Amino acid sequence: xxxxxxxxxxxxxxxxxxxxxxxxxxxxxxxxxxxxxxxxxxxxxxxxxxxxxxxxxxxxxxxxxxxxxxxxxxxxxxxxxxxxxxxxxxxxxxxxxxxxxxxxxxxxxxxxxxxxxxxxxxxxxxxxxxxxxxxxxxxxxxxxxxxxxxxxxxxxxxxxxxxxxxxxxxxxxxxxxxxxxxxxxxxxxxxxxxxxxxxxxxxxxxxxxxxxxxxxxxxxxxxxxxxxxxxxxxxxxxxxxxxxxxxxxxxxxxxxxxxxxxxxxxxxxxxxxxxxxxxxxxxxxxxxxxxxxxxxxxxxxxxxxxxxxxxxxxxxxxxxxxxxxxxxxxxxxxxxxxxxxxxxxxxxxxxxxxxxxxxxxxxxxxxxxxxxxxxxxxxxxxxxxxxxxxxxxxxxxxxxxxxxxxxxxxxxxxxxxxxxxxxxxxxxxxxxxxxxxxxxxxxxxxxxxxxxxxxxxxxxxxxxxx
Length: 466
Prior knowledge:
Radius of gyration: 26 Å
Distance between the termini: 29 Å
Strand content: 15-25%
Strand order of the largest sheet: 1-15-14-12-13-8-6-7
Number of helices: 16
Largest sheet: 8 strands, mixed
């Protein structure tokens, strides 16, 4: 295994896109001609946008006020994706929502923030406001607050992969009247429960200590912090199938604009099936298992973990959040933004298993090319783990990339292998435990989507830009 210390090549691979900045002032062409000050629904909307959940997001606040004002004044016909794009986000009147999904992206955030408001600051509101999925017209419903604890029950998965939570009042157990002669048994039972609680608390404390000793802790602590959302982005296997069927590699620019929908397939795939491949959210079990493993980390419970499908990610996420990208640029085109700045680059042909990793600056004992042989006699395949700054240099992006699913599985297993990560992170971090950007090249054997024990072939470590 070889390692080098060099200055980072370039971790600002994308130009700034002001159109995607959530704090950018957007000219507003709408203003209500009605006096809404005495309207309870409008008063509720004003309290919501003044809350902590909304105060820092001008666009989300403007979005909410626009749809509420139009609903209250009876102008629900103006609550459409196109009208919101024009009046709230400053899009040109002729813009096409199918080519610019900014309204849908912010609608998902709006629903999440509304849930957060009514869970926290707005818990005692007598009127509740929601934006149903697939629609933009607000819905109001009365709510009678009761002084009872709330249970958070997972309900369903949204379009972005986020599990929404239903707030259910916890029903207290009915009081039980016991004869006086049974009180000693109750006391004994209470003592037993108390001792059991002490035992559980002891196990939790010691288990927490074991997690704190995890050598991956500085990596998880950097990826899951309270000041950022952490997005786990599984691969888009729909785009993998489209590339294999059309023989055309889809770069990130085409992926964002959906230009690949005009491609013709030599396999006579009709337009409807192509649209279906594009519309459905296909991913693989390897990435889903990885997302579950990340979600179970103790550090993940302290942050704001969200699973988001690759097709629903946008450039602003890679500026504002910590992001874990699963899959290389062939299955997760967003990785392209960072791969070109790394030493270990992925090269693909639009055919299954026709792929390799290029070592741009080989060092002693290293190969210039690491070629995939997943279906050949050796079953050899490769993967890369890379930690790089996000596009605004305020957080981190972790790339977990395999030439195959087995490669990605090997990369995930390596991340969670303490014996492997302990010495590596010791080399990658500074005296204050902060981490530098790094790359890890991994070799494994591929048997279907599974892989046996992986080995580290080479590493690189860089100095982060100030």
